Amino acid sequence: MGCVVYSIMKKAKTAGNVKRTREKKQPKLFGLKKAIVTVTAFLGILCLILLLIRGMFNSGKTGESLGVATTYYYGVNWSPMFYGNVDIDNNLNLMQAAGVKALRMDVQWALIEPTTKGTYSQSYLSTLDYAVNGSKSRDIKVLMTVDRTPNWANKNQGEFVPPSNDNDYADFLVFLIKRYSGKVNDFEIWNEPNQSQFWVNPNPTRYTALLKTAYLAAKAVNPGVNILGGSISNTTSIGTDFLKGLYSAGAKPYFDVLSQHIYGDPPAHGNMDPETLFDTLTTTILPIMQNNGDSGKKIWITEHGYTTALANSSHPAGVTESVQADYLTRAYSKAKTISQIDSLYYFSWMNGSNWNTGCNCAVTDPYNLEQNYGIVKVDDSQKLAYQSYRNMALQVSNLTPTLTIVPTLGVSPTPSIPTPTVMTTQTPVPSPAKYCCKSSKRGCRKWCNVK
After folding, report:
1. What value does the mean pLDDT of the chain take?
2. Are the beta carbons of 71 and 394 closer than 8 angstroms?
3. Least confident of 21-25, 170-174, 208-212, 355-359
4. How many whole angstroms separate alpha carbon 346 and alpha carbon 78?
5. Which of 79-88, 91-100, 390-399, 441-450 has the lowest mean pLDDT?
6. Nearest in space to 375 (alpha carbons), one of 445, 307, 438
7. At a CB cut-off of 8 Å and minimum separation 6, what does 186 contact?
8. Distance of alpha carbon 3 from the chain centroid
9. Which of 159, 143, 146, 78 is nearest to 353 (CA)?
């Protein structure tokens, strides 16, 4: 509006100059002329400021996402579907205190629509509603990863076999988009479809078919929804060959952001520091995107982390807790030097959760590689990496954590910022015979691990 007024005033001033070349100077109008010049200058400055602000807000956005400004760069991975409301509040409070601004949560289709199409588990939906509402109230942006096929949708072939009819998956995605309209705008199509662990017989052409169906259905109900495709595991040939296959299959128009996972932690993913690791992205993934005319598309690193598991007879140790803390801040610093990377979700928020089975383990097996990626422990105490994350996110984002406590039935939470309990040493814990999975949720095994 200020720019329009400024334009009108400028035209009036120009017209006045032309008229004065034909007429004698009018002394009585000197004050009015001065006022017009002053107002015009003011509006011009105001217009420039507005344009600069607009550019600042638009520069971080991808598609029509709810926003990926500097503060939303800092994300974590966590699956709240396997927790009660009290635990959800406790963890969201800790996230808010640490400056976490984005949360990638696993939304399992097989659990929410388990038996027949259109019949939903009210228990899981209630938990998901609580987690989404709690995240929004704390200004934590949610990314939903939608995966795992219910038995009815693929003739009982297992949750990691894609659906027989891709429209069933698309319909579930649309259900989520409508249910969480105004609260969630970022959706990821599956998790690591290039890994047989999460997609039986990985096939980029088959995944592209699912991606296309889901993308078109999502855009039909909300053209501004942000769809992440790929969810590709690592930058080795298993990842690069899959990405090339996606482009060959015509996937390019059917995702707004490339989701990429990148690991370099010992012993399962080599032994690379963050700088070396992220350099592999620039020499492998980025050239493939450029060769397919997709260099302008943003990348979200939706998984990256280092396990702190101890060594046992079957594998060497991961990194120490102090190295994990150091690598965390270095990873974010390095990622920001790569302009295509728009967000980084650290894996993982909490120890103990078995991401593969959806199991919420009450006790963390210190020797289990998968269970020790967290920056927070299952008892809510913090590893050194939590403090590193907090110092980094709050300093860079210039944030002062002000908690929004969401009341839980039967609980009167104390409105204060959690004080990090930093563990300065890593004491080996004798391996117990069993690590019990206390969760009663469907999908959890009776024992998390048996030594």
Report:
1. 80
2. no
3. 21-25
4. 10
5. 441-450
6. 307
7. 65, 66, 141, 142, 143, 144, 226, 228
8. 36
9. 78
Q: Tell me if residue 255 falls in helix, strand or coil.
A: coil
Contact 258, 229 (CB under 8 A): yes
Is the N-terminal amide bond of 123 cis, ω within 30° of 0? no
φ and ψ at residue 360, rounded to 5 degrees: -95, 95
DSSP 413: -
Report the predicted TM-score, pTM, of the whole model to 2 decimal places: 0.76
Q: Terminal CA-to-CA distance of the chain, rounded, Å?
A: 69
- Map out the domains of the chain as residue ranges: 2-57, 67-450
d(CA 17, CA 11): 10
d(CA 330, CA 264): 13
- pLDDT score of 61 more than 70: no
User: Where do we find the tokens 């579930």?
Assistant: 172
**Phi, psi dihedral angles at 196 (to 5 degrees):** -65, -20
| 422 phi/psi in degrees, rounded to 5 | -90, 125
Find the DSSP H helices in 292-342: 321-335
Whole-number Å distance between alpha carbons of 90 and 95 = 9
Query: What would the mean pLDDT of 280-306 be, rounded to a whole number?
Result: 98
Task: With H, G, I as helix, E, B as strand and everything else as coil, classify residue 230.
Answer: strand
Taking a C-beta distance cutoff of 8 angstroms, is the pair 190, 147 a contact?
yes
Cis peptide before 267 (omega within 30 of 0): yes
CA 227/CA 297 separation, integer angstroms: 12
- Give the three-state DSSP class for 142: strand
396-423: b or e for each residue (b if 16 or more CB lie within 10 Å)? bbeeebebebbebeeeeeeeeebebeee
Distance of CA 227 to the CA centre of its chain: 12
State the pLDDT confidence band at 284, using cuts at 50, 70 and 90. Answer: very high
316 is written with which tokens?
Answer: 């060497």
Distance CA 370, CA 351 (A): 8
Task: Take residue 206 and report the two structure tokens written for it.
Answer: 């088959």
67-450: CATH topology is TIM Barrel (3.20.20)
Residue 117 contacts residue 153 (beta carbons within 8 Å) = yes
Torsion of CA 262, 268, 270, 275, to 10 degrees: 30
Average pLDDT (223-252) is: 97
